[in-house]
Structure formats: C-alpha cells, structure tokens
Amino acid sequence: MSGYDAAKTEKIGVWWDMNDCPIPEGYDARRVRPSIERAFKERGYSGPVSITAYADQTQTPSHVLRGLSSSGVAVAHTRSGYTCSVMHRDMVEWRGQNPPPGTIMIISDQVNGDFSWDLARLQQRTRYGLFLAYSKKQCNDYLLVYFANCRWEKLLEEGGAPPVVVAGELSSAAMFYCKSCNFDCQSLKKFRNHLSSYKHGMEDAITPPVTKFLFATKSWARNYPASPEHATSKIHVLWDMNDCPIPEGYDARQVRPSIEMAFEEIGYSGPVSITAYADQTQTPVHHLLALSSTGVDFAHTLPWVHYSRMITDFEIWTRVNPAPASVMIISDEVASSKSRSKIICLKLQKFNYNCFLAYSVRPSETPLLVTSAEWLWESLLAVSETRRHILHKCSESERVVASTGMFCCKLCFCDCKSLDAFNKHLSNKEHRKEEHRMLAHTQSFRRSLRQFKISKYHDQARCPPKRMRKAPRKGFLPRPLRFTRR
Ligand SMILES: [Zn+2]
Ligand SMILES: [Zn+2]
Question: Which intervals hold domain NYN (predicted)?
Fold first, then answer.
C-alpha cells in the first residue's frame, strides 16, 4: 500500500478561512461538515475529519456559530487580516502532533505565495495527502502537489442535508477558540461573552498582531543524517558545468571521488551516477577524457535548452528509478531559481526522494528544494585533496566502471559510446543542422515575444498615439535614428 493509500483511512485536518470562503446567504451552516465529508468520501477517504473555521467571529451571526458547533466544526476567532498566518501556524502544529499518513485540506484564497512556498517545503519532508478549496482566487503557482483544488461554493452545493445530530454527541467535539488570548470554551454563550469582554478587548489592543508570515521551514538545518532506506540507495548527480566548472589546474579525475567521499562522510554509500551538462565543444579534451575515465556521463547542451534538458533528464530518471533514491543538483541556477526547481520540488513532494545541492555561490534565499545536505562546489572538490589516500582507493574501484562514461547530444538525442564518436557527431552535418534549426527557432520566438509585448502595450495605452506618430515629421527625432533600432 502506498503512503497515500494508507492515508485514506487516517485523520483528515481541515483549516477553513471563513472570510475568503464564507457560508453563502441562506445556506444552513450545519451542512458544511457533511459537504466536506462527502467530498472526501467520494474520493475514497473515510478517516475522521476535524474542521476549524477561522474568522473575526465577532462578525459571525450566532445562528451560524451554533450551526457549526452543533455539527462538530470548531470555531476560531482571529483578528481580521491575520487569519491566514494563524491557520498556517495551527496546521504546522497539527502536522507535528499527527505524523503521516494523513490528509490536510486548506480552504482559502491566500494559498499562493508565502503559504504555498512553505507548504511545498513541508510536504517534501513529511508527505500528507493535500486538498485545496478556494472561492475567488485559485492557487496557481504550481508549487504544490495536490489531489483536488475545488471551488468552495461547488463543494457546498454538492453536499448533503444537515446531519442528524444526536444531542450532546457532536457538540462535545466542537470547541470555540480565541486565538488572540489563547482562550477556549465549549459554550457559545461563554465564547460570545469572552469576545465582548474587557479582557479580550485589552488583549487585542495591547498585543501586536502577527503581521509577518511565520515560515516553519526557513530555519530548517541543511544537514540531516541518512535515513536507513536512503543510505544504500542510488544517487543520481546532475552537474551543471557552466555554473560549477572544474577549477583551473584541478585534476578532473578527482571530481567523482570527491563527490563520493562527500556522500560517504554523511553516511551515504549507494551507487553514484553523474551526468555533466554543458556545451561540450567548449570542454577541454583532457577534461572529457579524465571525467569519462571515472565513469562520468556527458550531455551536450546549448544555453537555451541547458536547464530544460537537465530537468527533463531528471524526470526520465525518476521513471526508471523509483524512490527511495537520491538526487544531487550541482547548479547555481537550479538551486536558487523557484521556476527552475519547481518540477524537482513536485517530485520530492510526491515520492520519497532525497535531495542534495551544491553551488558555487550560496543562494541568497532559502532554496525551494528541501535538502539533506548542501555544499559549496569548491569545498566539495577540496574533500579529495585532503584525503588522497582514500581517493586512490576510490579511483581504483572506479576503473571498473570506467567504460560506462557515455556521451549524449541533448540536441539530437544521440548517444555515443566513445569520445571519438561524440566528436564526430558534434561536427557532422545532421548535428549542425539541428543546432541551426534550434537557434533559428529561439530567435523567432524572441521576435514574436517582442511583437506580442508591443501589441499588448499598444492595447493598454491605445497607441501608437497620434502625437508619437507625427513626431518624426515634426522633426522631434533626428532622421537617421529612426532606422537604428529594430
Ligand atoms: Zn480573546
Ligand atoms: Zn547532436
């Protein structure tokens, strides 16, 4: 049974922002819980559901509060404007108390941005089945792996009739919380009294609200010991030679042993495969020979397909190498760019892969990828310099796999078994044609993008305005200049 299947009978936690996703006019509040439960049942989830409704509850009518509470929905009062960060904090706490398998659902219009970034990182470390619901603003930054993202109103429409409440049974489960004062009670009257009390008013007035989003994962350490299932599993290394080149005077044969030793030091001993990405016509032949002799594969790329090929290759690799396994990314761009690391991030949320990063410059912001270890490229390479005796042993063992170093042209998707065959391929007519075709395509894409932006600007500004069109005739622009820019 996969982790997600196991979650189907486990706990479901629901965090609901009532400001973003209110109960529609005339809708019976007691129907909210059965509607949510029904949505889960339809998808095969039968675990116990806990729901908490967040809002400035001084604004919520008593009959709604009573309806929610009587159907087992907990009610939380938050100061208006801070609901999202309180919900997020409570969700993180719940995750700590309820380890996976389990399922979570966020009902909010504010999942985009800080919330989804932090949740995407949380989900890489501990995987829960994730459901989203929204009213007006759908989460569309594609950082999260979720099972459904439904419209709130539609979810309610499909819901059933109010539940038959056995007196005293469900209402005992539903609590009222004041998140400003850490106050809780089980009676609506007490809750109402609290919200209108001097003490609550004072707390609201003197305690500054949590204005900043509290990230749960920003302070996570970067080095974690290997878990038993990852310690001996495969490790695949994607090495961006443009961002992290071989330093001047460094013996290229030491790259593989350095990487392997860095893994060994933190407890990983699985077989390591390495692919080096670059315009290989620019790589010195002695580097190609040295790396290839240690079993490093080469991928020939050009700038405009460099990262896309690395990421596509990673996806293909995951298809034939199911988790548990590890991936190492050696690249400044993939480590720091949200858009470049998005696809890898999705895979890490979905499967039990482990991730390592190396970069020549530390990313200025916390990477989207949750890693088990990170290295500065140069200090990683220096590992073998200080431990040459072990390096010698590693290199010996590497010779066994020396012939596995493959050369692949990522423009034509052509594999070559030897450097000679690879060089021949890179200079042959077919390859050159492919290179020209790709270049022409990129240029035409840039031209049409520019054209598109110009016409969009004209649409917005309703231009070109008459004044500008007349300008050259009036002599505002010197004549030769009109032809200097295309
Ligand atoms: Zn209070
Ligand atoms: Zn080619």
Answer: 11-134, 234-333
Position 190, amino acid: K
Ligand 1 center to 83 CA (angstroms): 14
Name the closest ligand to CA 431.
Answer: 2
User: Which ligand has the nearest atom to the CA of 200?
Assistant: 1
Q: How far is the CA of 288 from the centre of ligand 2 (A)?
A: 17
Say which ligand is closest to the CA of 425.
2
Domain harbouring 13, CATH code? 3.40.50.1010
Ligand having the closest approach to the CA of 309: 2
Q: How far apart are CA 259 and CA 248, in angstroms?
A: 18
Whether residues 421 and 438 share a domain: the answer is no
Here the CATH number for the domain that contains residue 259 is 3.40.50
| Ligand 1 centre distance from Cα of residue 91 (Å) | 20
pLDDT in tens, the chain (486 residues): 455 676 788 999 999 999 999 999 999 999 999 999 999 999 999 999 999 999 999 999 999 999 999 999 999 999 888 899 999 999 999 999 999 999 999 999 999 999 999 999 999 999 999 999 999 988 888 899 999 999 999 999 876 666 555 444 444 558 999 998 989 999 999 999 999 999 999 888 887 776 678 899 988 866 677 789 999 999 999 999 999 999 999 999 999 999 999 999 999 999 999 999 999 999 999 999 999 999 999 999 998 899 999 999 999 999 999 999 999 999 999 999 999 999 999 999 999 899 999 999 999 899 999 999 999 999 999 976 665 444 444 344 433 344 457 899 998 888 998 999 999 999 999 999 988 888 888 787 777 778 778 877 777 776 665 555 544 444 444 444 444 444
Distance 189 CA to ligand 1 centre (A): 14
Give yes or no: residues 234 and 128 share one domain. no
Last residue of a domain, one of 408, 427, 446: 427
Burial of 135 (0-12, 13-18, 19+ CB in 10 A): middle
- Shortest-distance ligand to the CA of residue 305: 2
221 C-alpha vs ligand 2 centroid, how far in Å?
42
The structural domain count of the chain equals: 3
DSSP secondary structure letter of residue 484: T
**How would DSSP label each residue in 169-223?**
TSTTT--EEETTTTEEES-HHHHHHHHTSHHHHHHHHHSPP--S---SSTT--S-
Residue written as token pair 């893994």: 263
Rounded distance from Cα 413 to ligand 2 centre (Å)? 7
